Each structure stands twice: as structure tokens, then as C-alpha cells.
Amino acid sequence: MIDKSVGFIGAGRVTRIILGGFKKAGSMPCEVLVSDVNQDIIQKLKNEFTEIATAVNDNKAAAKKDIVFLAVPPKVISTVLNDIKASIKPTTFLVSLIPRVSIKDILADIQCFPKIVRMIPNANSFVNNGFNPIAFSETVSEAERQKLVDFLSCLGECPVVPEEKLEAYAVITGMGPTYFWFQLNELKEIAKSFGLTKQEAEMGIEKMVQGTIKTLFESGLTPAQVMDLIPVRPLLDYEQQIRDAYHSKLEPLYKRLKGIA
């Protein structure tokens, strides 16, 4: 166990991802308290992580821990911050997992100076292979930054990045797995229908994806040259449609997160 107390305000998907990563890595903090307004969500999380403590709508208790994760919708963040600001210790790391809400916005609501952090969580943290970009307020020293990064490293990589790039990471890496999971699962099912076992299909797809990424990014070839390595492209007729979908969906999403009209 890690000798840190941790509070989560919000018991939804991202809290489950982080707790899953802690548990799988054998790095569950010594004390975890999760607060949420929804009793059913709290109970579901407690059933999966029996070692945690839970509280229904008691954000102040969660806010008293050494590291406090904010995992609530952006629309309620001001209300939550005003509720907990008197409970946060000066030494607390306040880690916001919320896109769009800046460190400046948090400071305006909380009106005190804890160690404020923003992180874009990645679902792959559940299996300790996440990519979780992180940004710090000026109140956090270099030594303190390293301590928090070390604490979170069991989830995967946590590169320190400029805060203004977090929304780009939210669209590309935070939501990125959803762009591929359904396709990879469909490939697996097709592979099984062709006679491969589940294990053979999963191993083949995993190795193919790993090699695909390395070839595109590390071969020294241009994208066009990479795509010319294989003479048969079964989905060629759909490639432009897929490109158009990326642009039509992701560009407006990014603008909303950045507050760009």
C-alpha cells in the first residue's frame, strides 16, 4: 500500500479507472474515500473495490485527504469547489480530471492556494498502460511535481505538459481509445469466424497494432510510403469517409473544450 490518503469527489468511470490501475499495480493508497451524490454508483464501486471507504454526498470528508481527485462534470465544479474549499489542507494536491476548466478557473472559485493539478486521464490506466498528461499550478515546486508524478506512475506515463495543450490531449489521447476499440474488437470477431482461436486472434491483432504504430512513426518513411508497403487495401473505398468523420467530429469537440466560438 502507498502511504497517502486519497479522496475522490465523484464515483464514475474515471474514478473506477484510476482505482483499477492502483489495484492492478498493487499500489492502492493506504486510505481511499470516495464521495458521490448517487448511492447506486457508490455501491457499485464499493462492490468492486471493497477496500475503499465511501460517503454519500460528503465532499468535505473526501477533500481532507492528501491527494484529492475532482471527477465531476464541468457544470457542477464551481459548486463543488465552494463546498470543499474550507476543508482542503495547504499541503493537499487537488487534482482536476476535468477538461475545459482551467487552473485559473479553479483558483477563482476556491480562493486559496493548494497545489492545483490538472490531468487528462486515459482509460488504459486501468491496465497500468495509460498516457495521462499533467499540468501544475505555479504553487507546486519541482520536487513536489516529481513526487506526484511518481505516485501516479503506476497508472502509466504521466508527462508534464503546458496546460494550454490539455484539451488537445483530451480529444486525442483521452478519448482516443474509443476510436479504435470497436474496430479492433470487430477484427477479432472476424478473425474467429475465419478459424482463429480467441487467443490467436488477440495476439495477432496486438502484435499487428504495435508494429503498425512503429512503422508509421519510426520507419523514416513518409505516410504515403508507409501506406504503399501493402498492395491490397480492402478499406480503400472508405478511407476518405473515415478521415472526414475524424475532422467533422473532433474539430468541433476541441473547439467546445477550448471555448472557441
Textual characterization of the structure:
- The structure is a single chain.
- By secondary structure, this protein is an alpha/beta fold.
- It folds into two domains: 2-161, 3-Layer(aba) Sandwich (Rossmann fold), CATH 3.40.50.720; 177-258, ProC C-terminal domain-like fold (Orthogonal Bundle), CATH 1.10.3730.
- Helix content is 48%, strand content 15%.
- It has helices at 13-24, 39-48, 59-62, 77-84, 103-110, 142-152, 166-174, 181-193, 198-218, 223-227, 236-258, and strands at 2-9, 29-36, 53-56, 67-70, 93-96, 115-119, 130-131, 134-136, 156-157.
- α7 (166-174) packs antiparallel against α11 and α8 crosses α9 (198-218).
- The longest helix is centred in the last third of the chain and has 23 residues, at 236-258.
Write a concise synopsis of the structure shown.
The protein is 48% helix and 15% strand. The chain is an alpha/beta fold and 261 residues long.
How does the helix and strand content classify structurally?
alpha/beta
Number of helices: 11
Widest sheet: strand order? 3-2-1-4-5-6-8
CATH superfamily descriptor of the largest domain: NAD(P)-binding Rossmann-like Domain
Overall residue-averaged pLDDT value: 95
Distance between the termini: 46 Å
Q: What is the rounded Rg?
A: 21 Å
The top level CATH class name of the largest domain: Alpha Beta
Uncertain stretches:
none
Q: Give the fraction of residues assigned to helices.
A: 40-55%
CATH topology of the largest domain: Rossmann fold
Task: Just name the CATH architecture of the largest domain.
Answer: 3-Layer(aba) Sandwich
Q: How many domains?
A: 2
**Percent range for β-strand residues:** 15-25%
Shape: globular
Main sheet, how many strands, which sense, barrel? 7 strands, mixed
